[in-house]
Amino acid sequence: MTDNSRLIVALDLKVPDKAMELAREIHREIFAIKINWPLLMVAGVGIIRELSSYGRVICDLKIADIPNTNSLITSNVKENGGWGIITHAFTGSDSLAAVIEAAGEMKVFAVVSMSHPGSDQFINSVSMDLLEMAMKEKISGVIAPGNDLVMLRRIRNAGKGLMILSPGIGVQGGNPADAIRNGSDYVIAGRSIYNSEDPLGEVRRINSAVSSVIHRSS
Amino acid sequence: MTDNSRLIVALDLKVPDKAMELAREIHREIFAIKINWPLLMVAGVGIIRELSSYGRVICDLKIADIPNTNSLITSNVKENGGWGIITHAFTGSDSLAAVIEAAGEMKVFAVVSMSHPGSDQFINSVSMDLLEMAMKEKISGVIAPGNDLVMLRRIRNAGKGLMILSPGIGVQGGNPADAIRNGSDYVIAGRSIYNSEDPLGEVRRINSAVSSVIHRSS
């Protein structure tokens, strides 16, 4: 994987062989791979280690349990070679602290905002409080929507020094260049890549859209 | 397993053989077994099917993702023979509806309140709203703390017709008889059973404490 890319690819696939094949094809030109529970349930946690042979793997587990359970889940990801883990913050500071402690060197990203319609019922009404709490716990970064630029900018402004990862790119309407311009450090795209006839071409298209913004602003 | 028991045993173990052995020992005298991610990560989801040979298995996954991911997680549990699944509600009605739809005949229980200290920062301040939303989505039941009888009674009163499962029994301070008297339908105990020298004896002790309450009130 490469530090020159700001793209994290969500391998939201249920077929382990397809996930491995896609990783092999695109890993040299992306920043990281993100996987979630449905793949882990089918493949077993060993796939974290297999995918790690290609570089950074972020486990998007949206952990939301009591501190002890959060700690056990995180330790398991760490033992299997994960580079990063995504947890909820909604379950409070002790639950979040348990993830961060068990993670050690592994990066921990907190969900403080989501972008499906139901997010507005509960989680998005406390996004700024979740962010503030997560920063007190010394989180590595947060998840902020790439398709809601108002929310993204609020989180960018309040979250000085945090790494911001933004889903909602591609099929969900977000534009990678706009997300980066509005505060994302890394954009997360899934379907637009793994459902493409030419995944590597799509990766390059996103990388190039992002590069033009970064070079203009630096 | 038996309908005569109101006890759900949390097998929060990381060693699959120990979980299977304990299930074999106690399954005839309990209502259901509850398992969570740390065991599934080590054992693989196939353990849901193995444990199901002893009866009802509730997967306590505290699902908290977007609708599509929630649906995939739930389908996987269903395909492996789960009897019930535990999901969060704070990710909103569409995420919850996705679990309920994918669950089919499987029971779905929503977390509307938790009992670790951090719960009071976010989730417990919206417990009644979560409950109301979950009832609109036709949830089977909810999780309500067996060691916070005030919250338990509020949830019991507002949650007419819902099955209430209560953790926090035993090591976490809750008393099974008090929980049942205050509205729980089933109590969940873990450590007090699996860390006991005599797990079956502990199961019988809880069953008997619960029975005396039920017989007195009926």
List the helices and strands and how they pair.
Two copies of one chain form a homodimer.
Chain A: E1 7-10, H1 16-26, E2 32-36, H2 37-43, H3 46-52, E3 57-63, H4 67-79, E4 84-88, H5 93-103, E5 107-111, H6 127-136, E6 141-143, H7 149-158, E7 163-166, H8 176-181, E8 186-189, H9 191-194, H10 199-217
Parallel strand pairs in A: 1-2, 1-8, 2-3, 3-4, 4-5, 5-6, 6-7, 7-8
Oligomer: homodimer
Q: Strands across the major sheet of chain A, in which order?
A: 1-2-3-4-5-6-7-8
CATH topology of chain A: the name is TIM Barrel
Shape of chain A: globular
Domain Orotidine 5'-phosphate decarboxylase (chains A, B): 6-206
Pathway (chains A, B): Pyrimidine metabolism; UMP biosynthesis via de novo pathway; UMP from orotate: step 2/2
Keywords (chains A, B): Decarboxylase, Lyase, Pyrimidine biosynthesis
GO molecular function, one term (chains A, B): orotidine-5'-phosphate decarboxylase activity
Describe the structure.
- Chains A, B: It catalyses: orotidine 5'-phosphate + H(+) = UMP + CO2.
- By secondary structure, chain A is α/β, with parallel strands linked by helices.
- The first copy, chain A, has a single domain, classed as Aldolase class I (TIM Barrel, Alpha-Beta Barrel).
- The first copy, chain A, is 45% helix and 17% strand.
- In chain A, strand 5 (107-111), helix 6 (127-136) and strand 6 (141-143) form a beta-alpha-beta unit.
- At the A-B interface, helix 2, helix 4, helix 5 and helix 6 of A face helix 2, helix 4, helix 5 and helix 6 of B.
